[in-house]
Design goal:
heterodimer; A: alpha+beta; 5-stranded mixed sheet; B: about 400 residues; mainly beta; Methylamine Dehydrogenase, Chain H; 4-stranded antiparallel sheet
Chain lengths: ~100, ~400
């Protein structure tokens, strides 16, 4: 079980209020977790990764267990605590304003 | 009694403004999609309850929203509320925000670059949808003008999109370049008398026309003169801001270019200037009276370096002679200390007996006139910056 915390605008698009819980087979990677997220919430396709290149959108970052995973390769295995559901995978939008 | 519904796109959401035919009291609904840039909202002429909206964000990209009940509820096409989000074969549904350029040799030709600001060639990159133009006859068919400039069409109610690649591939694409707002395809005009003919306009490339439903295209910029490009009379490269027409005369086109208000009487084959006595012929919007094909409206802006109205006065200019002779319309509009802009898609007309004219400003006001511009009243004063205004005349 993977817990994912989306930024507010994506929660609104997905019509969810709190965390999103996903089932991912095997030891989840960034790629497989995002695949599972988009399969459950297809309205999010293209909002996190580019439709064609599958690259992370520039103003989004991925964090887990206080670590920045944004620049890890797609097959990067998520930390054990995330895979166990003890810690969430966070999708964080860049801060706007200032 | 007829009603009107004004569809407003702003920097921070969409708003729907509704009134009866008197157009005196208004109900305001919104913000819809709060916090997102709404470049355009437009209703289907074939089904007024069918609305399409372009929702976009620098963070999350492009979203297409659709309403089938006149804006009460919205959804991303392909995934209606309450329905499973996967198809029976397990594949996810709904890719209404997938705009992929056609690079096939058969249809699009593998065109990969256009001119960038510095004159170098730059790859085509999809950024957002500027304009949505529903078909006159089919609610499920809608065109999308996008940045970087290309024309897409959906025939399934916005569920999926396919490029009409003959436009980008016709040959002049490498000479197109972005304007300050980006290289956007912002105007789409379907000829109501000839379904084979569509006009589009791009900033900064110019106007183009197809006579075979979008398979092949050609530039229609003869007569345009732009001092800011190396060859002022080039075939392409002109910064066209908006084009409008009257449905009864689809061969007569009116254009607000970067500078210059222009007119064509032959479907864009040639243009001549009709700026006449305007205080400035720079501007963005242009529109045509619903019942008087020779009555046109513009909002002069001071200059390309100062995107606000001249002299602190918000004035709509009306010509009843198809250009050249213009009168300022000021009754009800601020005539001092006003420094707003009116963007290219932010004016519309209704088709009630006494033609209504509407426009929105970067200061967040939406003004309405129920007497063809003689007098104006603000429907709302304090919205986010207005990007687009459309109006539906409802039974």
């Amino acid at each position: 079980m993977i817990r994912v915390i989306l930024p507010p605008h994506l929660r609104a698009l997905a019509r969810v209020n709190g965390e999103v819980v996903l089932e991912v087979e095997g030891h989840a990677t960034l790629h497989s977790a995002l695949d599972a997220l988009e399969a459950s919430y297809p309205m999010l396709r293209g909002t996190i990764r580019d439709h064609v290149t599958q690259q992370r959108r520039p103003f989004l970052r991925f964090f887990a267990c206080s670590e920045d995973l944004s620049h890890e390769p797609p097959d990067f295995p998520l930390p054990d605590a995330v895979v166990a559901g003890d810690e969430p995978l966070l999708l964080v939008g860049a801060i706007a304003g200032g | 009694m007829s009603r009107v519904r004004v569809l407003v796109g702003t920097r921070k959401g969409a708003f729907l403004l509704s009134s009866d035919g008197k157009r005196e009291k208004w109900d305001v609904s919104g913000p819809h999609f709060a916090g997102w840039e709404i470049y355009h909202v437009k209703g289907s002429p074939a089904d007024p309850n069918r609305l399409y909206a372009s929702q976009t964000s620098g963070w999350f990209g492009q979203i297409i929203q659709r309403s089938d009940d006149g804006g009460k509820t919205w959804f991303q096409p392909g995934t209606p509320p309450g329905e499973p989000t996967t198809a029976p074969d397990g594949m996810p549904k709904g890719e209404s925000n997938k705009f992929v350029y056609d690079t096939s040799a058969e249809t699009g030709k593998p065109l990969t670059t256009h001119q960038f600001y510095d004159g170098t060639q730059h790859p085509w990159e999809f950024k957002r949808v500027w304009h949505l133009e529903p078909s006159h006859s089919d609610p499920d068919t809608v065109f999308a003008g996008v940045e970087d400039a290309a024309l897409f069409r959906s025939t399934d109610g916005g569920v999926s999109w396919h490029e009409l690649a003959g436009l980008r591939g016709h040959g002049t694409g490498p000479k197109w370049q972005p304007g300050a707002g980006g290289m956007c395809l912002h105007t789409i005009i379907q000829d109501p008398k000839n379904p084979n003919r569509i006009y589009i306009a791009i900033s900064a490339a110019g106007a183009f026309r197809t006579d075979d439903r979008g398979k092949t295209w050609r530039p229609i910029n003869r007569g345009l003169r732009s001092q800011y490009i190396p060859d002022p009379e080039a075939e392409v490269g002109h910064c066209v801001h908006h084009v409008a027409f009257h449905p009864s005369r689809p061969d007569v086109l009116f254009m607000q270019k970067h500078w210059d208000v222009m007119r064509s009487d032959n479907g864009g084959d040639s243009w001549h200037e009709v700026s006449g006595d305007l205080p400035s012929d720079f501007g963005f919007v242009i529109d045509v009276h619903a019942h008087e094909p020779e009555t046109i409206y513009v909002v002069p802006i001071k200059s390309d370096g100062e995107h606000f109205v001249p002299d602190g006065k918000l004035r709509v200019y009306r010509s009843r002679s198809g250009g050249n002779e213009w009168e300022p319309l000021t009754n009800g509009l601020p005539q001092r200390d006003c420094y707003v802009n009116v963007l290219r898609d932010a004016m519309a007309v209704d088709s009630l007996d006494s033609c209504g004219v509407y426009f929105g400003t970067t200061g967040g006001q939406v003004y309405a006139s129920s007497d063809a511009g003689d007098s104006w009243n603000p429907i709302v004063r304090d919205l986010p910056a207005v990007l687009s205004v459309e109006v539906q005349t409802l039974p």
